[in-house]
Structure formats: structure tokens, C-alpha cells
Amino acid sequence: MEGGGEIARLREIMRRLRDPVTGCPWDIAQDFASIAPYTIEEAHEVADVIARQAWAELPGELGDLLLQVVYHAQMAEEAGLFGLDDVVRAISNKMVARHPHVFGEESRDKTAAQQTADWERIKAAERGPARVLDGVALGLPALTRAVKLQKRAARVGFDWPSTDEVVAKIAEEAAELVEARDRLTAAEVEEEFGDLLFVMANLARHLKVDPEAALRAANAKFTRRFGRIEDWLAEAGKGPDESNLAEMDALWNRAKAEEKAAK
Q1: Which residues are the signal sequence here (predicted)?
Q2: Overall pTM > 0.85
């Protein structure tokens, strides 16, 4: 396609994929709800590439994420709701409106924290009268949403003053979970476990730690160390299913010591 650049080419590709006569049967069958999980997945894959600093992979992953935006816009255009130009216009207008210190008359002489506070103030004005927790997206990863809910509540003073109270609450919730394990139903155990995770997210917020990033790092560490266990077992001519917990735990500690020594 000539004259429109690569974005125009992508829009045309998406239009043809969704063509009800000549398009792809799978793409034609999709709707907003069926595509939404892929949108979330692609955003996570972008975050994963950044966490691994695999910069050569980033253009491809960003392209996959961009495709999701184009896909939703194409479906919206077919339904007479809006188009890609409306999406771009909306975010452009929002960025200008929320940065009066760049595009308006306000002074740029502010700290990052002050600018964040101003951003939230402008967002609140855009939303109009609303409850404190309104607008925190349901589709966010649960840990991320927990932190955002807690931040909103903290703005109006509903927050512990220090990590000491949070840690005490973690101990309380952990004890309740142990008790629940022995005498409550599966649904009640799940509820107690959720309470514990929610307070753990609160501790992460107080420590200025992103719980999603921390858990991704822990997952990567577990994968890496378990891989070393498999390597060492393979050198001994066996697999994990032919080992036992004591042996694998010893190899885990070996992998842990190996990593510490390499730092």
C-alpha cells in the first residue's frame, strides 16, 4: 500500500483480515471480549522483554501490542462506534490536557512527585463526582489492581502510617489462613488467602516495590534455579522424577550459592 506509511498498511491488513467475504475465518469470528485476553497477554510480553532487556525483541513485541489496538479499533469501526483516528485523537488530547506544564502556561519547576499529584488531580476533574475507588480497571492483574485501590484509599487518609502495622497485619492474616486450612471450606480458605495477598500488596506499596515485577523476578529466579537442578541431575544420568526432595533441595541451595558467588 502506497502513500500512508506502515500504520496505514497495518490498518489495511486488519481490514482485509476482518472482511466478511474474503477475510480470515478466525479473525472474522472474534469480538472485543475474545480479543481482550490477547491484549493483556501482549502487554505482559512487552513487560517481560523489558525486564530481560532483550531489546532486539522489543520492536516485535510492541508490534504485537499495536496490533491489538488496531484490532479493537477495526471492530469498533465495523460496529459504528469509533475508529483508530478517534483512539489516537483521544490519547493526544489527554496528553496535552494532563501536561499543562509542557503544553500550557504552568511552570515546569516541579518535582516528579508534584507532577504526579497534578496528573491525579486533573484525572479526578475529568471523571467528575465519583466514589474514591471508581475507575480502577477490573481487567488489571489482581496485584496491580490491589495496589491502585490502596493508593486511592490512601489519598483520603485510609492507610497505615508505617510498614510496622502492615507487617503485623500480614502475621494476623497468615495465622487466620493456617486456622482456615484446618476448619473452613475451600471457598473460605480462598478468601483468607486473598486477604493475605491483599495485605502483601499493601506492604509492596509501602516499600515502593511493584508486586507484579517482584513476582515476575521471583518466577524467573525459580525457573533459572530449577533449570540448574535439572542440569546437575542430567549430569548424574537422571531426571527430577528419579530424584527426591532432599537431593533436589540440596541442589537448589547449590544453585543459590552459585548465583550469590557470581554477583
Answers
A1: none
A2: no
53: left (phi over 0), alpha (psi -120 to 50) or beta: left
- Residue 180 and residue 218 share a domain: no
Query: Do 27 and 84 share a domain, yes or no?
Result: yes
**Structure confidence by residue, pLDDT tens digits, 230-245:** 999 999 999 999 999 9
Find the domain containing 242 and state its range: 213-262
Cell of 225: 534455579
Q: What is the pLDDT of residues 41-65, one digit of tens each?
A: 999 899 889 988 999 999 999 999 9
In the block, residue with C-alpha cell 482456615: 180
User: Which of 192, 209, 226 finishes a domain?
Assistant: 209
Cα 102-105-106 angle, rounded to 5 deg = 70
